[in-house]
Amino acid sequence: MKSRIRKSIMAMLLCLTLVGTSSISALHADASEVNGDIQSGQSVGAGGNAGTGDESSDVADAVKDSELDGEGENDGEPTEEPAAEEPSDEEEQEEEKPVSIEYQTHVQSYGWQKTVKDGALAGTSGKAKRLEAIKIKLTDLPEKYEGSGVEYAVHVQSYGWQNAVKDGAVSGTSGQAKRLEAITVKLTGSIADDYDVYYRTHVQTYGWLGWAKNGEKAGSATASKRMEAIEIKLVKKGEDAPESTGNAYKCPLVGYQTHMQSYGWRSKGYDNAVNGVTGKSKRMEALKISLPDVEGTTGYTGGIAYQVYVQGNGWQDWKSDGQLAGTTGKSKRIEALRVKLTGEVAEYYDVYYRVYLARIGWSAYVCGGDDALAGSMNLSKRIEAMKIKLVKKGDTPPSTAGTTYLQGYQNSDFYYTGKVQGQGTTGKIAQGSTVGVTGKSKRLEGITLYLNQDESIANLPKGSIQYAAYLSSTGWTGWSEQGQFAGCDDGSRGMEAVKIKLTGDFAKHYDIYYRTYVQKYGWLGWAKNGQTAGTSKISYRMEGMQIKLVSKDASAPGANSRYYTQTRKSSGPDAAMYARANMYSSPTQYIIMVDGKTHRVGIYQGSRGFWTCVKYWACGDGKPSTPTVRGVFSVGNRGYYFNSGAYRCFWWTQFYGDYLFHSVLCWPNGSIADGRVGMGLSHGCVRLEMPNCKWIYDNIPRGTTVVVYN
User: Fold this and answer.
1) pLDDT tier at 631 (50, 70, 90 boundaries)?
2) Which of 86, 165, 182, 316 has the fewest Cβ atoms within 10 angstroms?
């Protein structure tokens, strides 16, 4: 300001010099006259300007000052008016206003809040209110930043990242109850050369996160967390940045989701969380894996690929980045899994994963790759859950010590041979098939079991199969192992019973099932793991047997019951019916047989192969013109009586449509009208004497198998 005043004075004085020297002399003379006091001895020059007074001295001093300032150097000569000076950089900085950044938020329940700027809080904290939209703009921009602005984009609940907007436009939603979850902000134009924009968010559960800048992501993703407040500020390049510039954006590195038996799709899991169901014996059927924001979280591009081994189908093709691997709606278990990273991120990160296996629990971690494998094959073992995590190369990885994968045996790895009376040794019999001859009265005299164990296959359960035979007259042999014969090799005795067991790790993962075909009984039930199968003390020959090596996670070939007896067989009053009954099973402890040729009904108790006749009656089934339906049926409804013309039938039990067991024909008062049985005479139902039809009504459960035949 002083400089400007001084310059104004100098400009005024310079104007006076334009009048000329004579004007100045006159000014001096006038001054002398006014003073009336010319000093003695002082000469007066030709110009008459030697005298001075207070006023003339002031003027002269001003002129002198002007000369000293370099602005009146042409003493007594006219001068041109000097050009106006440009202000210095310092003076310009003193006048320049700082650039501001203003922002306004739309808040749940409150709507649009007032505009704030330069690092002030917009939104709320501690009130559990979501931000729903935001507007941002720059203010007080000088001319040199003309065309500059601010661009921003938000991540909205359900919608994901929205297109970027700029300079005060609305980003987000209103009236849709959708939370903002993350944001990016960056400067555009020439201002970006001089300033950085910093911003941080207050997020549900996490509180204030670190500062992000210049387009970096701030907030969270995939965690369903609302953004509650935001602060934004400009910082001139070279000046101190805000503290805590890390951890501005919370987003998991890897996400995964499983489809589980009975449960369907589970919620997504992230970064080594358990996904699936453990301890419930539920199979994993399908899965999806993705990197939710690979570039935002790692700084690199790329993806993730995965491959699954499916029950009955084997290895599927590789899937990637959220695609479905496995099956749904087909009840197929996933048994093994491979995972690998792809693209740039694979150069800087490793993927580690582990699976929860049925009956075993968690496997060790495996580091992903084309051949890295977690799970099992050929063991029918379901995966029930999994964990996946990404680890930056050079950081400490999880332990990979322990078992990651189990290899089972192929069906063809186990087989057996037998020695048959009069026929010698059979060829190789595939597991589950019959060794021996059934129904030909030929005894089985010995067996040899074989197991191919490839020592080069890693993680193949090791152990042995041991077996012993019970021979007629001599009893049990000692234990033999695979490849050794157990039985009678001279043809003098036959087998009556057998027991087979597994040892070592083999027994941890497999069961051995076996059953025998015995004289008079036929097939007995399935024994397993060292149980005795067959007969003893009744001199019944074993004619055949079947053996199956079954993973503990696979279904048994049949019921583990009625596999051994010391009781002689009794066929009851009807050997043919008894033999036929033992060909069928029933969901209850009873089975009803109806012979249309002999007009007989048999009631048997027990189970397939072990039926015992408990009732045997004559019946009146359908006459030739209206025969009783033939086939296998089951017991349904029942009732006290129904009327048929002039007759009444009591204690009826349905077995197929309108076909019933019921009483002989009676009069409405209950007396017998036609009590004949033992012949075909009905319209298709099976007539029984009153006590017999009532016994069925009282004792036979719904669902019991009924077999009608000729």
Assistant:
1) very high
2) 86
Rg (CA), the chain: 52
Q: Enumerate residues 6+ apart whose C-beta is below 8 A from 126.
A: none
> Taking the domains of the chain in order of start, what are their residue ranges?
1-32+48-82, 98-250, 255-407, 411-565, 575-709
Contact 546, 514 (CB under 8 A): yes
Distance between CA atoms of residues 98 and 140, nearest Å? 7
- For range 249-257, the mean pLDDT: 97
Q: Which of 23, 4, 157 is nearest to 78 (CA)?
A: 23
DSSP, residue by residue, 108-124:
TTTEEPPPEETT--EE-
In contact, 381 and 331? CB cutoff 8 Å = no
CB atoms within 10 A of CB 270: 17
What sign does the CA torsion over 157, 162, 164, 169 have? Answer: negative
The CATH code of domain 575-709 reads 2.40.440.10
DSSP assignment letter at 599: T
How much of the chain is in helix, strand and coil states, percent to nearest 5? 15, 40, 45
Name the phi and psi angles at 255, rounded to 5. -125, 150
Residue 175's pLDDT band (boundaries 50, 70, 90)?
Answer: very high
Residues 6+ apart with CB under 8 A from 46: none
pLDDT band for 96, please (50, 70, 90 cuts).
low
Q: How many helices (H) and strands (E) does the chain have?
A: 8, 59
Interatomic CA distance for residues 262 and 557, integer angstroms: 24
Quick check: is 662 catalytic?
yes
Model confidence at 383, pLDDT cuts 50, 70, 90, reads very high
CA 555/CA 102 separation, integer angstroms: 69
Strands 510-518 and 527-528: antiparallel
User: Which one from 488, 613, 666, 685 is the annotated catalytic residue?
Assistant: 685
Long-range CB pairs of 450-455 (<8 Å, 24+ gap) are 450/414, 450/415, 450/416, 450/417, 450/482, 450/483, 451/409, 451/413, 451/414, 451/482, 451/549, 452/409, 452/412, 452/413, 452/414, 453/413
Closest CA to 165 of 157, 156, 178: 156
CA distance 494 to 423: 13
Q: 662, 666, 683, 693: which is the annotated catalytic residue? A: 662
Pairing relation of β-strands 212-213 and 195-203? Answer: antiparallel
